[in-house]
Amino acid sequence: MEKKEHFFELPYWEYNLLRHNLDVMHIEKNVCDNLIGTMLNLEGKTKDNLKARLDLKDMGIRQELHLKEQPNDKYFIPPACYTMSTTEKDLFLMVLKKLKVPDGYASNISRCVNLKERKLTNLKSHDGHILMQDIFPLALRSSTHKQVLAIVSQLSSFFKALCSKVLDPKELDQLESNVALTLCHMEKIFPPGFFTIMVHLVIHLVGEAKLGGPVHYHWMYPIERYLVRLKEYVRNRAYPEGSIAEGYIADECLTFCSRYLEGVETAFNRPQRNYDIIHNAEEYKFSSGGRFVGKAESTVVHHKLLAQAHRYILLHSDLISEYRRSVWL
Fold it and tell me: What is the pLDDT of residues 83-110, one digit of tens each?
């Protein structure tokens, strides 16, 4: 006899269309972890292991990936198209190690790269979000098979379109059919063990976006950030609830009082983290604010690069747009 969920006993449950509200943040992070663990062949995280190859033999599929018996009673695991070689791992990890992004765009992903052991560690949910949507299609170009790169790029485009601020209902129908084909193509490449529950839930994300709207309003990023803030209030671990309540009240009182303080730096009048005062700013045509981060390095700019930068400014700067129009007309 099947067990009936208690949710169905609620009087409003039959009218609740968005019953599960799948979290895009955790699903995207788990898919990213599966890809990284399988392609880098990380011990304990890869979905392509001995049991996965035995499953292929039991199902009678993908004979080229079956275990090869050796004369010394050992087995050889043939490399798959999604498994990176040592050189490919070094290329992929070196791209992430030298990656530089604008301030506030992502965390320092290079801190997670271990070139010696050829692995990625301590990736946060937002790191997986950035890797999945923007970095993978570029970083994997020279590090994996073209067929695998095409599938990862399709999956990356899906998450990027799903997480956009504005969703078009007409485009969502096409997006839903495309992700179904993408998962079918992935089943032809990756082993069956790759497709965990989280990977299968990807196909339901578009349907929930149709009901709940843009994913920014019902994913877990703001909740996780707020929980971290509440944990910072804990001073007495024996009574965490009381510590959080007292810390919350104190924070609200300080926030209220800071709105009426003059001549004091508060959270409301504090300059930006990378804000630098520019003296004689009116003498500059272009804004030159900012400062160096990290160790300074001297670079010689060749005439060709200098000419390209000068030409780019002339063609794209809004400050001289009127001059361009007058010259071209």
Answer: 999 999 999 999 999 998 888 899 999 9
Q: Find the radius of gyration of the CA atoms of the chain.
A: 26
Q: What is the pLDDT of residue 154?
A: 96
From residue 136, alpha-carbon distances to 109, 131, 212 in Å are 13, 6, 28
Tell me, rounded to whole angstroms, the distance of Cα 80 from its chain centroid. Answer: 25
Give residues with Cβ within 8 angstroms of 33, minimum separation 6.
Answer: 45, 123, 128
Chain segment 214-232, per-residue pLDDT in tens: 999 999 999 999 999 999 9
pLDDT in tens, 159-191: 999 999 999 988 999 999 999 999 999 999 999
Given a contact cutoff of 8 angstroms between Cβ atoms, the answer to whether 131 and 169 are in contact is no
Cα(282)–Cα(291) distance, rounded to whole angstroms? 19
Q: Which residue in the block uniquely carries the two structure tokens 């030159």?
A: 288
d(CA 153, CA 132): 9
Residue 113 φ/ψ, nearest 5 degrees: -90, 125
